[in-house]
Amino acid sequence: MSAAGEKTKLKNINVSVWRGDSAGGTFQNYAVPAQESQTILDVVAWIQQNQDPTLSYRYACRVGMCGSCAMMVNGQPRWTCRTHVQKVIKKNKLVIAPLRNLPVIKDLATNMDEFFDKWVRAEGVFHPTRTRDDEIEKINPETSKRARANAAIECINCAVCYASCDVVSSNKDYLGPAALNRAWSLVNDVRDGALDQRLDAVSKSGGCHNCHSQHGCVKFCPNELNPTAAIAGLKLETAKTMFRRRR
Fold first, then answer.
1. Any idea which fold 113-246 has?
2. I want to staple 123 with a disulfide (CB 3.0 to 4.6 A). Which of 158, 180, 189, 201 is the partner?
């Protein structure tokens, strides 16, 4: 039998997709043809292109570089462009929903404002000590500080860790793993001039000491970062700063 003939024998996938907006919604069922090497994003795109053009979702690169296609797949946050159907499908069924812990704009697209607002609250913004007119500062890549900064800088703001975090679910004031991971990378960047300001920001209500070290962010981070370790570093540095100021 030809390859085309084999494909026609592949069964459909039963897919439940969350439909709605900030006011509420429900899951809608679709039958999607199974394909070889099919990703979850392929499934969502097929539904939008062939069954329901009103379905809203977000994506950009499709190759695991931007993180904008993140959604909940069978209850877990994932980059849908890098998640193959055959690795996550259960009893020929997929359940696709918007990222947890974020307000829904429409269907599978979430509002990322609070996620990025927390980056600002955590002082996740670089404060340079030099201007463009100064000579570029030479950084020794072998120092322990640079190694700690390098370990945290590959975050691409996909919010998978934010969606996986049970502390965020129970405490909306919590800054979240990504914002605190970013703060830690800057704490260890010798070019930044806002160390005390940043440590004050992450030690306030909703800061690093709210983390329960459950490692959900580590488990689901597509870039294999360790926000829990970064947050532990912030806890230590803020505690040291507190005792130093009390002397």
1. Fumarate Reductase Iron-sulfur Protein; Chain B, domain 2 (1.10.1060)
2. 201
CATH superfamily of this structure's domain 3-110: Beta-grasp domain (3.10.20.30)
pLDDT tens column, 189-235:
999 999 999 999 999 999 999 999 999 999 999 999 999 999 999 99
Question: pLDDT tens digit string along 129-175?
Answer: 999 999 998 999 999 999 999 999 999 999 999 999 999 999 999 99
| Maximal C-alpha separation, the chain | 81
CA distance 124 to 95: 34
Check pLDDT > 70 for residue 1: no
Looking at residue 10, its pLDDT comes to: 59
> What does the block give as tokens for 29?
């069922």
Distance in angstroms (rounded) separating the CA atoms of residues 70 and 78 = 5
Average pLDDT, the chain: 94
Domain ranges in the chain are: 3-110, 113-246
Instruction: Give the Cα separation of 201 and 179 in Å (integer).
Output: 11
Contact criterion met (CB below 8 Å) for 192 and 128: yes
State the pLDDT at residue 3: 42
| Closest to 115 in 3D by CA, of 73, 63, 168 | 168
39 near 24, Cβ under 8 Å?
Answer: no
CA distance 172 to 175: 8
